[in-house]
Amino acid sequence: MMTKLCGWHRVSFVLLHVYVLGVCGVVLGAFGFQFIGKELPCPLCILQRMAMLLAAAGPMFIINRSSILDSDPKIDLAIGFGMSILAAVLGLWMSGRQVLLHILPGDPGYGGEVLGLHLYSWAFIVFATILLVSGITLVMSRLMVIKTKFERPKVVSQLTFWVLGIVVSTNAISVFAESGTSWVLPDNPTEYKLIQEFKEFLKQRPREIPSKSQKAS
């Protein structure tokens, strides 16, 4: 039987949405650098975005499972934040590697800066925060598990789901535009290969031969 949320159940449910939307906000900020600042992401940057979106998929999984009557909330919490922890560990490794690539004195780093730090440095901080929050959530699982089955707020949950879906789709389209028909991304991308390949295709198309009637006229 479904009832209304109250107490820690409500707090936990709200925090799940904040978690997902917060991670999406970070990735959208990276898109701002890409599309507005015209700084194309390198392969490591793209992998870090994917890891962040995988980390956000964990709480989204819990939100979707929260109104299913036959679901086990403890298992759902373990699976969801287990995904987030795995994604955060992968993200820490990838962002840490990129930090080490540019750690030598005099190295200007890759891309622009925000408050004196490059995006991959901020990514390292974000992944560390995700790992910390996920660990604290599992430690406090007695309070954070949503044991009450309820009719979830459709507008908020669906909006959160669509925001995550749009960010994931945008990232996929961006990668395809950057790589074109190649399976390998350039280390220092300077252009969208798909657009360049399309322009070359248009140039190589044979010009239309005018018909006899057009010649006579």
Itemize the secondary structure elements and their pairings.
Layout: H1 8-35, H2 43-65, H3 73-101, E1 113-114, E2 117-118, H4 119-139, H5 141-144, H6 154-179, H7 193-204, H8 212-216
Antiparallel strand pairs: 1-2
Distance between the termini: 80 Å
Number of helices: 8
- By DSSP, the count of extended strands is 2
Structural class: mainly alpha
Q: What general outline do the C-alpha atoms trace?
A: globular
Helix content: 55-70%
Major sheet summary line? 2 strands, antiparallel
Determine Rg (CA atoms, Å).
23 Å
Q: Segments where pLDDT lies below 50 for 5+ residues?
A: none
The average pLDDT is 77
| SSE ordering | HHHEEHHHHH
Strand order, sheet with most strands: 1-2
The share of residues in extended strands comes to: under 5%
Summarize the model shown:
With 217 residues, the protein is mostly helical. Helix content is 68%, strand content 2%. The protein is built from eight helices and two strands.
Offer a few descriptive terms.
single chain, mainly alpha, 8 helices, 217 residues
Notes on the protein architecture:
There is one protein chain. By secondary structure, this protein is an all-alpha fold. It contains eight helices and two strands; from the N terminus they run H-H-H-E-E-H-H-H-H-H. The protein has helices spanning 8-35, 43-65, 73-101, 119-139, 141-144, 154-179, 193-204, 212-216; strands at residues 113-114, 117-118. The chain has a two-stranded antiparallel ribbon. Helix 1 (8-35) packs parallel to helix 6 (154-179) and helix 2 (43-65) packs antiparallel against helix 3. The longest helix is centred in the middle third of the chain and has 29 residues, at 73-101. 29% of the residues are buried. The model has no long low-confidence stretch (mean pLDDT 77).
